[in-house]
Amino acid sequence: MPASSPDAAVQCTVLPASARDPQGWLVRETEIRRSRFLTYLGRVEDEPRAREMIAALRRRHHDARHVCSAFILGPARDRMRSNDDGEPAGTAGAPMLEALALRETAPGRTDLTDVCAVVVRWFGGVKLGAGGLVRAYSESVSAALDTTPLVTRSRQAILAVDAPHAQAGRWENELRAAGVAVLDACYGAAGVRLRVAVPDSDAQRAAFAARLADITAGAGRAEPIGTEWIDHD
Predict the structure, then answer these.
(1) CATH topology of domain 10-148
(2) pLDDT per position in the chain (233 positions), as tens?
(3) Under 8 Å CB-to-CB from 142, ≥6 apart: which residues?
(4) Is there a contact between 123 and 36 (Cβ–Cβ < 8 Å)?
(5) What's the pTM?
(6) Domain limits of the chain?
(7) CATH of range 155-231; options 3.30.360.10, 3.30.70.240, 2.40.128.110, 3.50.50.60
């Protein structure tokens, strides 16, 4: 099994875009021994969103025999669920989940997360057997992933920098010029709060503190206010 890096500061997820589906899900269809398999992949932020996607597809394809699903959630990939939806136990949801969990986004790296896979099946009259079902559901998800755009995201430390009104514009411009991601600027009566993102490591936070001190002549201070996963372009 490829090594996973759930605690790393970089991971991949599905790009939330598609020209084929109005919900932004990516779709791939295949036929195996007269059974029709329609696979959907979607980016989901939490379990309620994943279950909403599954429920929506169940309503959309109410005439299908099975609507099987699997999803992985969280930076640590610690929430994994699957459902066979009437197929023999272990022949649909589990192989779908394995296809997601073992997907390599780079050599030796399996870090795909915040993704839901739904495979809709219309029975064509020919039984596939347990082994055939496992292969069909696993390969349906793997083949869909082959054509799915992924995006890399990284864990960023979010810092607040309070600036005087007279200096806020210059500080923001110089931070941006130095390659710092300035997320927003909130203007208040006492001053301006700049919210910035830097890679979440001690070295990067120290480098930012030094850069900020240089730009502000020692007047600026960075207050940590949390972390966020931010997509890379």
Answers:
(1) Ribosomal Protein S5; domain 2 (3.30.230)
(2) 344 444 455 556 655 544 355 667 888 888 888 889 999 999 998 999 999 999 999 999 999 999 999 999 988 898 999 999 999 999 999 999 999 999 998 888 889 999 999 999 999 888 899 999 999 999 999 999 998 888 888 889 999 999 999 999 999 999 999 999 999 999 999 999 999 999 989 999 999 999 999 999 999 999 999 888 888 76
(3) 99, 103
(4) no
(5) 0.76
(6) 10-148, 155-231
(7) 3.30.70.240
